[in-house]
Every structure is written in structure tokens, then in C-alpha cells.
Amino acid sequence: MSNTPIFRTVAAVFSLGSISLTPALAQDTDAAQAVQDPREPIIDDSEFDATIPAIDDSPDAAMGSVADWEAEQEKLGREARQEDAEDGVAPLPALQDGDPDELIADPPVNDPEIDDPLTPLGSFDVEPFDESQYTEADDSDQAASLRYDYRIDGLEALDESGKTQVRPVSADDIRSRFSDLSALEDGDGKAANGAMVSARMTEDQQLLLDIMSGQGFFDATVNGTVELPDTEGEKLVVVLQVTPGTRYDFATIMFDAGPVVPDDLIEKNFVPAIGEPIVAERVLAAEANIAVVLPQEGYPFAKTGQRDILLDPETGTGDYTLPVDTGPRSSYGDVVTTGTTAFDAHHIKVLTRFEKGELYDSRMVDDLRKALVATGLFSIVSVKPSPSGEQAPDGTEYATINVDQEAGPPRTLAGSAGYGTGQGFRVEGSWTHRNLFPPEGALIGSAVAGTQEQGAGLTFRRSNAGRRDRTVELGISALHSDFEAYEAFTGRLSGRISYDSTPIWQKRLTYSYGFEILGTNEQDFNFATGMRDRRTYYVAALPGQVTFDTSDSLLNPTEGFRLSAKLSPEASLGSGQQIYGRGLIEGTAYFQVDDGIVLAGRARVGSIVGAKRELIAPSRRYYAGGGGSVRGFGYQELGPKDPDDRPIGGRSLVEAAAEVRYRFGDYGVVGFVDAGQVYTSSTPGFDNLRYGVGIGGRFYTNFGPLRLDVATPINRQPGESRVSIYISIGQAF
Predict the structure, then answer these.
(1) pLDDT at 258
(2) pLDDT value at residue 306
(3) CA 519, CA 525: separation in Å to the nearest integer?
(4) pLDDT for 11
(5) Torsion angle of C-alpha atoms 658, 664, 665, 671, degrees rounded to 10
(6) Spatial CA neighbour of 184 closest among 243, 241, 240, 244
(7) Rounded to an integer, what distance in angstroms lies between the CA atom of residue 84 and that of residue 103?
(8) CB atoms within 10 A of CB 174
């Protein structure tokens, strides 16, 4: 044998996590030569030559006519019959047309098969063929009369040699992959007959070959046999004998591509390295990574072609080549919109996080698509680049950003309901036209009805107002509240500018600031007279809030933390001019300790400075207790109370809570302990804390968890409920 390596050129096809190789093998073929037995010649050469007519070599010689040729043939025929008669040879049988000299004779007149009548149709068996005995039976125990087991032999060699591989594969890995797709496994050890078992075995032989090829064992073989039981009633055994063969490694990795910037852009993003086994999953993942990275680095039209692998059986290595069509290096061009539009291209540019002429990055295009979806104004929206053929100043080519819109229904109805001890039932509903004043100018009508609250309001909201994620709101509302702490009739005019998170795009830093003007008539206990009376307050406030959020979800966080601060300078008229400030700091944290188990904690501290409690409208004071505060107590139940044992609120508060959340599927169980107190002074005392403990259930939906909490106070005092129940949407915090 020559020492020159024998190479196999292959076209590699990756399917179902495997590499299927079709080698073009050189084959040696010996030309077969026919060997004939010597025979005596029929006539000698001289006699044969004499029968050949003379040919006139002159090109101008006249050609004979067809009539002359036929006359000559007839003459030769008569001479031949005369010679046969002289030699005693029997003449040919009579023909149908009486012409014995035809080159293709007619059938003899006396052929009996021609004159025989056809067989009557009634004599044929027309009973349809019954193939039911050969068809596959159902999977019932009665129909499946055959039982079997299966095993895979020969994989043990992988455990012995795989430890030295760069990417080892074990026998258990192969068996696990096989079990997921096996026809024998799916059959659950039952079959109607042996043919069915054989078919499943054949299918699984190919499956094992594909799996082995996917791990780089391109020379692997799989033989299938059936071991019949020695005793009637025992199961037969299907044996798949695997011979792994050589595991091929990368000898070279090359890319058939034009120049890119930087020069190693493709190479550094192809994860497999020389010396590694040719594993299908890693190759496919690496090719997919290239297809993702190139559009992120200025090549929006990049495409990968069909890979080629050159295998060397003598060295057990392969040379990998991947064609890559990068397309032109591009920058952002103009934004163009088509379809049934919700708003125009100018407003779309407000949503972009890129400028014309910047190097193309597909992540920013995906971000634009998410922002468009977050508006809620589209039934269908897509964002795709297309080449413009126009060169940018930096030498790149502008890529036009095409936004195809299909406006969706702009009107929505929404509603929610809840219940809390001390707060009673509460139902909220709203009607929204999200694009009544384009672009993204919404009109929202809302109403609340409950045992202790009734009201209505109207809000104008402009989303993405002048810049991405900025919201401007103006609202007017009227509300009647009747709680243990106070009764109030309130009219409110408010405005706000905010930078908020959305369900699709949750932001780390959010903020809001605005104004609030309200007139409220409220009932409060007057300690000077010892009676409850009503007073009217006129309040002007400038509320602001900032939040830093690292959590992984708005409605159901499992990791991260949130920290928010609220500050509202306020001026109050009604019982003398009062200027004061309300402040509140709140932090929450979430820790996932195991699959389905989350620890959650919350702390809140608030303070009002600058005015006495009795000069502050009761609705502007701090209260604690209820489903969103300290569970185990009624709404606003904690803190100072009047002689009638009704809460009157305070100027500071402290709250804390801890939960253990366990989720299983769409359901969950929560155990919790809450603590809190309200104080008369502006500085919280952190003493006399009240505690509540309880358990809750959760039902997880696409729009958030439904919550049911049951809690009881620790060291319950007279007048406090033994059990408090809270029902709402979303986690407690």
C-alpha cells in the first residue's frame, strides 16, 4: 500500500443533531473479457466475399431502382427454393397472404390459439385480498401479542477512550439521546408481530448511526439482531451492536469569505477549535453564532453556505470549510414604513436608539421592533433591513430600515377585582382608546366601585412624547372614600411626566415628576372638641419618584432587587396655611435558592415633616395594615386611634415583610410574616411593632399571578380580626 493518505471528499449535511456524510469513493473496476469457444465457420471467406456485390467507386455512378432490387430478390428466392427442392429441404408453411417471400412473415393460418375463444369473466376469482393479517395492529394489550426488550452493545468503548478526548462523550450520553427518539422505545416493548419489531429495529439502526455521526464517529457501524426466547412466553431481545470506529477531529478550519472588519471577526466567533472532535451540535451552534454576530457587527445581509468536510481515514481528521457571503458592510439608512399605519415614519424615528450613518447593529433593530410592539397599536409589525445601493461617507453602504405595519384595534376594555379585610370588595374597570390623538395619544376613562370606594376619572396620556419612553399624563377624577380612618369626597387634577418600564422592556432606572391639585372634604376626629367633624382641605403638591430596578420581572420577580424613593412637597389650606413634605423609601429583594423556591423581602420607611398631624388632611397621612402593607390586620388598622378605637393615621411608618415562595407548575404556595407600625411623630420609633403571619396560594397566568392570602395577627388585641383574607392580582411585593 502507498504511504499517500487516502482522502474522501464529502458534502456534510447536519440533520437532527447528526452529521450525515456522503463520500465519493474511488473504486477500481476490472474490464471483463468475454471468452468464446472456437466454432467451425458456416462459410469460408472466399465464399462470403463472392456474395458481396461489386461497388462502383465512382461518385457519379448511377443508382439502381427499387424495382430492379425487388426483381433481383425475387430471382434469388426462386433459385434458393429450387436448390432446397434438389437438396430435399421441406418448403415453408403457407402464409395468410400466400406470399412466402416476405421478410417478416405473417402468422401461420393454422395457428389454433388465435381462433380459441376467451376465458369467461365469471371463471375468475374476484374475491378481494384480505390484508388485515399483515397490517399493523393497534397498541392495545390484546392486539400486541408480542413482547420485547432491547439493548445496545459496544458503547462501553466510549467510556474507556472518551476520557482523553477534548469533548468526551459517554455511553450514557448516546443511550439518552437514543431513548428520546427510538422507535423501539416508543413501542413500549409491545408489537403485533415480528415484522413490526424488525421495522423498528431497522429504523433504530439508522438512528444510532446518525447519533454516532453527530458525535464524530463517521465510520461507525450498527448491526441489528433478534434473540429469540428459550422459553415460550418470555420476551425476545433486540440487540443493536455498535462498533464506534474512529472519532474524527478537526485538522483545519477554514472560511471561504471576503474581507471583513476586523479581519478575525469570523474566526474568533467560531467556537470549535482544531483538535476537537467534529460534533454536530457544536458545529451547528458555531455556524448559528456567526449568522448572529455578523449582523451585529455591520453585516446585515450576511449568509452562511453549505459546509464541506474533507475526511482522512488514515489520520482520523477532517478539514472543515464554510462558505460565508458577508454582503456589504452597512450603516443605518432611512426609515421607511408601509402597510396600514398606526403612525408615520417620523414617530418611528422617535423610537429608534440609532442615528442614520451609525454602523449597523441588528440588536438595535430588534430593540426598535420591541418598542413598536410595546405600543400595543399593531396586530402585525416587522422591521427588516434592505440594501439601498447608496454609499455612506465612511465607505459603508446605507441599509434602509423597512417597517411594515398592520394597525390593530385601538380600543380596549380592562378590569380587575379584589377583596381585603377592612377594605371590602373593590372592582375597577377602564376603557382606553390608545391612539385617539396620534401619535400614541390615548384617552382613558376609568371607574371604581366597591364597598368603601366609588369614583370615576378621565386621563389623557401621550406615550413616547417627543422621545423614547417618555410619557405625559393629564387627569381629572372624583372619588368617594369611606374607611374606618376617614370619609372623604375628593376632586383631583393632576399631571405627570414619567420614564416608565413596560411589560416588554423593563428598565433599570425609572422616574416621574408632576403636580397634583385637589380639594377634599373629609371627616376627622377633633381632639379639641372630642367629636368627629368635617373639614375641607385644598392641597397643592409636586410629587416625584425615582426607582432603580434589577429584578427579572415586573409582576413575578425571582431575582434582583428594587429601590425606590418618593418625595412630595405639599401646601395645604383649610385649617391655616401649612407647608410640609412627605417622603417614603422602599426596598425589595428576591433570591432564587432552588428550582421553584424564591425568598423575597421588603422594607418601607416613611415620614412627614413640617406640620402637625391634625393640620394634615387625613387622606394625606400615613397608615399601615392590609393586603399591600401588614397582612393579618385590616386596611389602615395599625397606628394611633381616637377614643372610638378608629385609626387616625400618623406622620411616620415602618413596614417589613418576608416570604418563601414555592411554585409547582401553574400553582404556588407562599408562607409569609409581616411587621409594621405607624407613629404620631415624624421620626419612626421602630418600637411596638405588630406582626402578622399567614399562608397564601398563587395561580400563575400570562398576565401575572392571582393571589389569595390568609393571615392572622400575632398577640391579637381586642377588636382585631382573628383571620384576614386578601385577594388580588400580582404578588404582594
Answers:
(1) 92
(2) 95
(3) 19
(4) 37
(5) -30
(6) 240
(7) 18
(8) 21
Give me the amino acid identity at 16: L
State the DSSP code for 613.
Answer: G
Q: Is the four-CA dihedral 284, 286, 289, 291 of positive or negative sign?
A: negative
The Cα–Cα gap between 183 and 191 comes to 11
Q: Return d(Cα 197, Cα 203) in angstroms, integer.
A: 10
pLDDT of 28: 39
CA separation for the pair 304, 255 (Å, rounded): 10
Inter-residue contact 638 to 622 (CB < 8 Å): no
Residue 551's Cα: distance from chain center in Å?
A: 22
Q: Which domains does the chain have, with CATH numbers?
A: 138-243 (3.10.20.310), 249-325 (3.10.20.310), 330-407 (3.10.20.310), 411-729 (2.40.160.50)
CA 157 – CA 168 distance, rounded (Å): 12
One-letter amino acid identity for 603? A
Q: Name residue 532's beta-bridge partners.
A: 525
SS3 category, 196: helix
Q: Closest Cα partner for 347 from 273, 252, 251, 435?
A: 435
How is residue 108 annotated by DSSP? Answer: B
3-state secondary structure 534-552: EEEEEEEECCEEEEEECCC
The interaxial angle of helices 194-214 and 171-181, nearest 10 deg, is: 130
The DSSP string of 553-579 is -SSS--SEEEEEEEEEEEEEESSS-EE
DSSP-derived letter for residue 128 is P
SS3 content of the chain, % helix, strand, coil (to 5): 20, 40, 40
Tell me the whole-structure pTM to 2 decimals.
0.68
Helix (H) or strand (E) holding 524: strand 509-526
Give the Cα-Cα-Cα angle 211, 213, 215 (nearest 5 degrees): 75
Residue 215: HSE in the Cβ half-sphere, 13 Å Cα cutoff: 26
Apex 253 CA angle, 252 and 258, nearest 5 = 135
Helices (H), 357-504: 362-374
Task: Determine the residue type at 303.
Answer: K
Residue pair 226/201 in contact (Cβ under 8 Å)? The answer is yes
Per-residue DSSP letter, 437: S
CA contacts within 13 A on the Cβ side of 390: 12
Alpha helices in 558-639 (DSSP H): none
> Which residue type occupies 604?
R
Contact 435, 377 (CB under 8 A): yes
- Do the beta carbons of residue 118 and residue 131 sit within 8 Å? no
Q: What is d(CA 146, CA 671) in angstroms, rounded to the nearest whole number?
A: 53
Nearest CA among 254, 255, 178, 250 for reference residue 216: 250
Burial class (CB in 10 A: 0-12, 13-18, 19+), 483: buried
- Residue 713, C-alpha cell as written in the block: 395577627
Are 238 and 201 in contact by the 8 Å Cβ rule? The answer is yes
Backbone angles phi, psi at 595, to 5 degrees: -60, 120
**How many residues can be counted in the chain?**
733
- Provide block-wise average pLDDT over 10 residues at a time, the chain (733 residues): 37 40 38 45 68 59 66 75 67 54 50 61 53 43 73 84 66 92 93 92 96 94 91 89 94 95 95 94 95 96 95 95 96 94 91 94 94 90 94 95 92 83 81 92 94 94 92 96 90 94 81 95 84 90 96 88 96 82 96 93 95 91 92 90 90 96 94 96 90 94 87 89 87 86
- d(Cα 499, Cα 551) in Å, to the nearest integer? 17
Residues 454, 460 contacting (CB under 8 angstroms): no
Question: What phi and psi values does residue 30 have, to the nearest 5 degrees?
Answer: -90, 130
Asked if residues 473 and 498 have their Cβ atoms less than 8 Å apart, the reply is yes
| CA atoms within a 13 Å half-sphere pointing along the CA-CB vector of 197 | 24
Cβ neighbours of residue 276 closer than 8 Å, sequence gap 6 or more: 166, 167, 249, 250, 282
